[in-house]
Recover the amino acids of this structure.
């Protein structure tokens, strides 16, 4: 399976990171399957970065094989959502960006794709663009997003990426983070919510 991720998909987050240009197409990257962190396992701070950021994102689970998917049919290709964290080594990412190099290692390291428990989309009214989500750290909300604020909607992203690569059952799509990203430090307690349902819960060690 593969983990697709979209960057810069919420306007306020782009502003906080200093991105002024408007993207004409979704900004996509991959995280390897070895980056998945789930079942409440702790996230261990890696030693190659002094600035690991959390990015809380809605994650969509692909449930059907497809390529060249038209936007109007894209909703048939996912069936469940959760909250995940796209952990990013911001210092390494900055160095790579300055050189015009790929982000890969700054976002693809082990445990960089924290993943919550999936909720069937049918339980959420079958509208992936009407999902309220938030991330609490030590009981305080640090990011709060609504999927209606995405610059590129899930169906557009799926249609776009499927022109280039086949989507497979079990693939994941991290759909971008809203404003409020920041560094994690040891012993923090991260909890992700869809609505008021806690779907993601783990500690930084
Ligand atoms: Mg992200």
């Amino acid at each position: 399976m593969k983990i697709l991720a979209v960057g810069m998909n919420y306007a306020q987050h782009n502003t906080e990171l200093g991105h002024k240009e408007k993207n004409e197409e979704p900004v996509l990257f991959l995280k390897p399957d070895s980056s998945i962190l789930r079942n409440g396992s702790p996230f261990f701070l890696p030693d190659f970065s002094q600035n690991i950021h959390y990015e809380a994102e809605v994650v969509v689970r692909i449930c059907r094989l497809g390529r060249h998917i038209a936007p109007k049919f894209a909703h048939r290709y996912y069936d469940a959502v959760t909250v995940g964290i796209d952990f990013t080594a911001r210092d390494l990412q900055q160095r790579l960006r300055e050189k015009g190099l790929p982000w890969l290692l700054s976002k693809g390291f082990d445990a960089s794709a924290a993943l919550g428990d999936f909720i069937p989309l049918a339980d959420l009214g079958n509208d992936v663009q009407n999902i309220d989500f938030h991330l609490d750290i030590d009981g305080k909300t640090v990011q709060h997003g609504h999927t209606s604020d995405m610059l590129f909607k899930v169906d557009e992203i799926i249609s776009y990426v499927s022109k280039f690569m086949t989507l497979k059952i079990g693939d994941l799509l991290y759909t971008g983070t809203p404003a409020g990203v920041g560094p994690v430090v040891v012993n923090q307690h991260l909890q992700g919510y869809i609505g008021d349902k806690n779907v993601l819960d783990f500690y930084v060690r």
Summary: The CA atoms of residues 21 and 136 lie 30 Å apart. The pocket of magnesium ion is lined by residues 5, 7, 55, 57, 86, 174, 176-177 (CB under 6 Å). The helical segments are 11-17, 90-98, 104-107, 154-161. The two ends are 27 Å apart (CA to CA).
